Amino acid sequence: MTAKVYTTAPGHEVWIAGYGPATNDVPALVPEHVGVELAVVAGLRVEFHVQFQFEGEAESLAHEADDAMEAEEPAFWHAVAGSVYHDQPACSLGNNIEPENRRPGTGGRMLCRECAKLKAREE
């Protein structure tokens, strides 16, 4: 099975290593397992396409991907108007981003200083 991966923000492009760029309008075609991982880890929008379908399989996969996206927070996030991205749940700056201004991924920004300090403490 293949998946179409899109960015969630109009006007942004994400390069998916080995598969090319993905935008909000033009997807990158990836294997199913890569699509699931990108949906969960990076918070990208993924559509699954079944080549050989057994009864109920496509519906089951779609529900699993939706459930995984709801259950997992993105590993990286940034504010629409921010200059940095965040990757630490304990970061006060990252946690103060209002939901309507929060986007998954790095957005091509540098890591937040507070996140970097929290990460260094973990290591």
Explain the layout of strands and helices.
Layout (H helix, E strand, L loop, with lengths): L1 E5 L7 E3 L3 E3 L5 E4 H11 L2 E5 L7 H15 L5 E3 L4 E3 L5 H4 L6 E3 L5 E2 L1 H10 L1
Parallel strand pairs: 7-9
Antiparallel strand pairs: 1-4, 1-5, 2-3, 6-7, 6-8
Q: What is the SS-derived class?
A: alpha+beta
Question: Number of domains in the coordinates?
Answer: 2
Rg from alpha-carbon coordinates: 16 Å
Stretches with pLDDT under 50, minimum 5 residues: none
Average pLDDT taken over every residue: 76
How many runs of DSSP E, i.e. beta strands?
9
Summarize the amount of helix as a percent range. Answer: 25-40%
Gap between N and C termini: 38 Å
Beta-strand percent range: 25-35%
Main β-sheet, in a few words? 4 strands, mixed
H/E element sequence: EEEEHEHEEHEEH
Shape: globular
Strand order of the largest sheet: 8-6-7-9
What does this entry show, briefly?
The chain has 123 residues and is of the alpha+beta class. It has helices at residues 32-42, 57-71, 92-95, 113-122; strands spanning 2-6, 14-16, 20-22, 28-31, 45-49, 77-79, 84-86, 102-104, 110-111. It contains four helices and nine strands; from the N terminus they run ββββαβαββαββα.
Question: What keywords describe this structure?
Answer:
123 residues; alpha+beta; 2 domains; 4-stranded mixed β-sheet; 3-stranded antiparallel β-sheet; 4 helices; 25% strand; globular
